Amino acid sequence: MASAWWPCLILALLSGLAASGFLRSPSRPLGVSSPVSNGIEVYSTKISCKVTSRFAHNVVTTRAVNRADTAKEVSFDVELPKTAFITNFTLTIDGVTYPGNVKEKEVAKKQYEKAVSQGKTAGLVKASGRKLEKFTVSVNVAAGSKVTFELTYEELLKRRKGKYEMYLKVQPKQLVKHFEIEADIYEPQGISTLDAEASFITNDLLGSALTKSFSGKKGRVSFKPSLDQQRSCPTCTDSLLNGDFIITYDVNRESPANVQIVNGYFVHFFAPQGLPVVPKNVVFVIDVSGSMHGRKMEQTKDALLKILGDMKGEDYLNFILFSGDVITWKDDLVQATPENIEEARIFVKNIHDRGLTNINDGLLRGISMLNRAREEHRVPERSTSIIIMLTDGDANVGESRPEKIQENVRNAIGGKFPLYNLGFGNNLNYNFLESMALENHGLARRIYEDSDANLQLQGFYEEVANPLLTGVEVEYPENAIQDLTQNAYQHFYDGSEIVVAGRLLDEDMNNFKADVKGHGVSWVTPEKIALWNGAAQSTFTWLDTVTITQDGLSVTINRKKNMVISFGDGVTFMVVLHQVWKKHPVHQDFLGFYVVDSHRMSAQTHGLLGQFFQPFDFKVSDIHPGSDPTKPDATMVVKNHRLTVTRGSQKDYRKDVNIGTKVACWFVHNNGQGLIDGVHRDYIIPDLF
Predict the structure, then answer these.
(1) Which InterPro entries does its entry note (predicted)?
(2) Is the pLDDT of residue 15 over 50?
(3) What is the per-residue pLDDT across 284-294, written as a single tens digit (0 to 9) for each?
(4) Cα(671)–Cα(493) distance, integer angstroms
(5) Cα(356)–Cα(322) distance, rounded to whole angstroms?
(6) What is the pLDDT of residue 641?
(7) Rounded Cα distance, 57 and 512, in Å
(8) How far is CA 198 from CA 156, 188, 195, 315, 448, in A?
(9) Closest residue by Cα to residue 634 from 666, 606, 662
(10) What is the DSSP string of 316-378?
């Protein structure tokens, strides 16, 4: 939501400021290195952050005085996260406050240009760097006058690699008598970790000016360097405060999900832990046109070599290079075996730049390869596909119209997997890359032409390298929720978080049921049993006998019989191995899933089995011969329905997995219609786990 606001923001001060005689003159930045020479002294800068449930409310306040004998112009520059949005700005001169107005993009741009042409004071948001946008406003300050700039912006903090990050740019440009950053964090789930670091100061100096603490639901960070601690050297008059101040934290997760309800609105956080990584099928589509020559190509190759070292043995991959034509490493995806990885490393080392830029054909070749691999069962059924493209320019050969390329890519992918676009440098149509990625359930990222470009590439890959779930859907009661934000995601990646918000129709509602559905790795089959502890995997067969206990969970494998899963004093589940004659023309070994202590389940438990774990009323009468003389029919009254049922028997294999115990029962016809809640299709899933 925040990123959609960002390019549409401008802040123009009310026209009354110009009427007061504050006209623009050649710009001079606020906080220059020698305040005596121009008369402007910045004597206070404070950044105050209040974070509640991942939502940050930030106020930047800077106070300055003009100690010169004549009016001086000062510019107030603030660099803000790209995902933030401005909510307020005020300018106070000699006790008189001038509020600002936030406008949408087109209206704001016209008003800004008009204000500048008339000599009025106005502010504008512009791109600044990797993670930042710059807000700038200038004003003339009379001799002896004081001015206070106050900017308020907000953002929803995203979780990446297991942490939430607040990114603050520190650049006062001069020594400031009172400089302070303070952040107060409140998380209802409780704070598990809290840290802060600065790129512009050594850890020793940072430690003397920094305090941080957290306990329970509250955390606090304060950075308050003295004038001497701000100096670039003991006798210097310039400031070393020039760089990034980053606060990171995470919350306690006793369960995968947390729902918070306030004033008729809710926010649902979902971040399961300890799940096994889903194998991935990755095609890297790399621009090798002439513009990639030199450092960009070398950094790209360095990053790809590092990525190859991180590939898992069950992953599949391929490389597609595009310039004026398209070259593939292999005709099809190949498994990331040690031999194939070594061959891929040799291929990457020999990549050279050449020719023009055919984005369309490069992407379509990669998409076709992923589609074919799935259709021809060349990759594991329970795996996920990803396509990652890197380019540094615009298409200039083949199909070069951005809108047509987008159409071709959208039709080829067909919503089956995400596209991630990496734009290298500034000489490209980044809006095109971003739009194409977003409409294919991915995202775009700009890679800046710095010495660490290879680390930027690796960092992006690490964010998508470990998918834990695919096809994630978060479902809520149909008649209880409205104004729902995005609630379906193709992937959930390790270290990230899914956030869904909405409005409750009943403002007094304090709880409701939310179902999260997704597909992970199959970990129990008739051939093997895979147990996971975070990223660590232990694999067993049905010939093993073993018991594993950890944190109240007990798993026991009984040779050739079953696997028993117990949760402390709670419910116990049993997975029974049903083996059939090996030469049977149709039947195969299969698994049966049983709940041993159904009475221990919550009354809220549902599902095809769960809805019957608690007692319910039914009555059978009018027993009479049926179409099969050995199986009488009867009338069952249940859940206000009259059903025709047939007498029969079923086997219970919990005590005797080979022969089973014969149990008499009534069979309900028409797929259980009238007995089960909803219809039978509601309970059909691809597999058990």
Answers:
(1) ITI_HC_C, ITIH, VIT, VWF_A, vWFA_dom_sf
(2) no
(3) 999 999 989 99
(4) 37
(5) 8
(6) 92
(7) 28
(8) 22, 27, 11, 37, 20
(9) 666
(10) EEEEEEESSSEEESSSS-EE--HHHHHHHHHHHHT----S---HHHHHHHHHHHHHHHHHTT-
Q: Return the CA Rg of the chain.
A: 32
Torsion of CA 404, 407, 408, 409, to 10 degrees: 120
Contact 33, 21 (CB under 8 A): no
Burial 405-429 (b: 16+ CB within 10 A, else e): bbebbeebbeeebbbbbbbbbeebe
pLDDT in tens, 23-47: 222 332 333 223 333 788 889 999 9
Pick the closest to residue 11 from 112, 83, 127, 152 (CA basis). Answer: 112
Distance CA 279, CA 688 (A): 18
CA angle centred on 619, ends 614 and 624, rounded to 5°: 140
Cα gap 250→195, rounded to integer Å: 10
Exposed/middle/buried for residue 35 (C-beta within 10 Å: 0-12, 13-18, 19+) = buried
Picking from 198-212, 379-393, 455-469, which range would have the lowest pLDDT averaged per residue?
A: 198-212
Residues 172 and 166 sit within 8 Å (Cβ to Cβ): no
Contact at 8 Å (CB) between 667 and 626?
A: no
**499: β partners:** 269
Q: Is the dihedral of CA 201, 204, 207, 208 positive or negative?
A: negative
Residue 82 carries which DSSP code? T
Residue 129, both tokens: 């760097």
- Name residue 653's amino acid: Y
Question: What length is written for the chain?
Answer: 689
pLDDT at residue 18 is higher than 60: no
Answer whether 0.85 is exceeded by the pTM. Answer: no
d(CA 456, CA 131): 12
C-alpha to C-alpha distance for 46 and 40, rounded to whole angstroms: 18
- Phi, psi (5° rounding) for residue 163? -145, 150
Q: Which of 318, 466, 442 is nearest to 379 (CA)?
A: 318
* Pairwise pLDDT comparison (606 vs 125), residue with the higher score: 606
> 168-220, pLDDT tens digit by residue?
888 887 899 999 999 999 999 999 999 999 888 877 777 788 999 999 999 99
What does the alpha-carbon distance between residue 251 and residue 217 come to, in Å, rounded to a whole number? 9
Are the beta carbons of 562 and 546 closer than 8 angstroms? no
pLDDT tens sequence across 626-662 = 999 899 999 999 999 999 999 999 888 767 767 788 8
Give per-residue pLDDT as tens, 495-538: 999 999 999 988 878 778 888 888 887 668 888 887 776 556 68
In whole angstroms, give the CA distance from residue 351 to residue 546: 50
Note whether 512 and 477 are within 8 A (CB).
yes
CA nearest to 90, candidates 3, 186, 16: 16
Structure tokens at 440: 């294919």
If we measure between CA atoms, which residue out of 374, 360, 349 comes closest to residue 298? Answer: 349
With 50 as the cut, is the pLDDT of residue 115 above it? yes
